[in-house]
Design goal:
With 411 residues, this protein is of the alpha/beta class. It has 13 helices and 14 strands. The longest helix is centred in the C-terminal third of the chain and has 22 residues.
């Protein structure tokens, strides 16, 4: 007779058992409060708790983006929000200037171009910030004001470059250029400080599954009065994507141009309440400390191994939601495999740094610290990475965990 409960252990115990931690830059960790709020019977979509709850949700959605203006919601992911923005802003042949600092700015550019917008891309590469002087020079050349909108990412999730939006606003103002300022905050909203109205942004897009801690499947477009007026004649607009009724519905179904995403909405309600309870300034400060802990660990690991390093050299241009780093090929892939299979932590793949078919692809990874993340989760992920570096015999400098712990302890 074999008693499996008391049988001899494996040569190496399975240390991945326990609650897994998905530390990829979206979807992010969902709070139990969000999960529990969604666990309910299908609600009536015509009266009762759901319509009442949603009416109160819109002010909180505005608040989280720092705007008193308009917000339209969509059943779709971030790519859907890009198309929604394009459809409501542009007519065929309108010109957009895209400032790219990684893969996602290019994604918005491709989406607009495919819809018939004349897209011009200023590509600043995959680790440098937007060069404001170059943007200013380009806008000065545009004497007839042909550029209708400047599109950019607040955080490009592939590179973890953060764009200085107030500085970009200042450039538009210095040139007195009338272009709309449109910002992709899909990675950054609820992680990196953002004030749509105070920063003079005309359009913001975000999705539910990153800093907003809710399952993928909802996205949002916030827009200014100026954007609404500028897009009034947009000929790319079709009934489903039309933001006018969605932002100011006369009947409940018009929020979604059809059936509401019922359970997502109960989850989002809880997530927005959690952000409000914590306070946005505290939310941003928490992400700042967690990000700096990750940076401190990488700085220590990099000592003596030039293959290891953060993607963005200057902390002033780094995201507080996600950190892109290099380890040298194939060690980034080896480390990701190890942390996932041996310790239950899933790290993000490198994105946009090399083609997946290129051996160099295996040299990049990303650590997410977006959304519902606290000190023990970030220190846990870093501790597991430290164990992986040891297990895989990847050369690295000492003191990474001490350095990260000091950031957590001392701020
Ligand atoms: C995740 C992300 C997207 C794409 O969102 P999907 O929901 O995957 O379509 C676009 N832009 C940024 C900055 C992102 O982080």
């Amino acid at each position: 007779m074999h008693d499996t409960l008391s049988s001899l252990p494996n040569a190496r115990p399975d240390l991945s058992r326990g609650r897994p931690y998905l530390a990829i830059p979206g979807p992010s960790v969902m709070p139990d409060r969000v999960l529990n709020a969604m666990h309910r019977a299908a609600p009536n979509i015509y009266a009762g708790a759901l319509p009442e709850m949603v009416a109160a949700l819109w002010p909180d959605l505005r608040a989280v983006a720092g705007t008193a203006q308009h917000v339209a919601a969509y059943i779709g992911n971030g790519h859907a929000a890009w198309e929604a923005a394009n459809a409501n802003l542009f007519s065929r042949g309108d010109r957009a200037l895209v400032l790219s600092t990684g893969r996602f700015g290019l994604g918005w550019a491709e989406s607009a171009r495919a819809m018939g917008v004349e897209v011009e891309v200023m590509d600043f590469g995959t680790s440098a910030p937007v060069d404001m002087a170059q943007v200013e020079a380009r806008l000065r050349q545009d004497r007839e004001g042909r550029i209708k909108a400047v599109l950019t990412t607040h955080v490009d999730t592939s590179s973890s470059v953060r764009t200085d939006i107030p500085a970009l606003r200042a450039v538009l103002d210095a040139v007195a250029h009338p272009a709309l300022l449109c910002v992709d905050c899909i990675a950054s909203l609820g992680c990196d400080e953002y004030h749509m109205d105070a920063w003079g942004v005309d359009l913001t897009v975000a999705a539910s599954q990153k800093g907003l801690m809710t399952p993928p499947g909802m996205s949002f477009v916030w827009f200014s009065d100026k954007a609404r007026a500028a897009g009034a004649e947009a000929d790319l607009r079709t009934p489903y994507w039309d933001w006018r009724k969605r932002a100011a519905p006369e009947e409940f179904w018009q929020y979604w141009a059809g059936t509401a995403p019922t359970h997502h909405l109960f989850g989002l309600r809880e997530a927005l309440s959690m952000l409000r309870e914590e306070g946005m300034a505290n939310v941003w400060a928490r992400h700042e400390v967690l990000a700096r802990a990750v940076w401190a660990a990488f700085d220590a690991w990099a000592v003596g191994n030039a293959r290891i390093g953060l993607n963005v050299a200057d902390p002033a241009h780094r995201s507080r939601a996600v950190t892109a780093a290099r380890l040298g090929a194939p060690d980034a892939t080896r480390l990701r495999d190890w942390t996932e299979t041996q310790a239950g932590v899933t790290l993000g793949i490198g994105l946009g740094m090399a083609l997946p078919s290129d051996p160099a692809w295996h040299g990049f990874l990303r650590v997410a610290h977006m959304g519902h993340v606290n000190a023990h989760m970030t220190l846990g992920a870093l501790g597991v990475m430290q164990a992986g570096l040891i297990a895989l015999d990847i050369p690295h400098g000492p003191g990474a965990l001490e350095a990260a712990a000091r950031v957590i302890a001392l701020g």
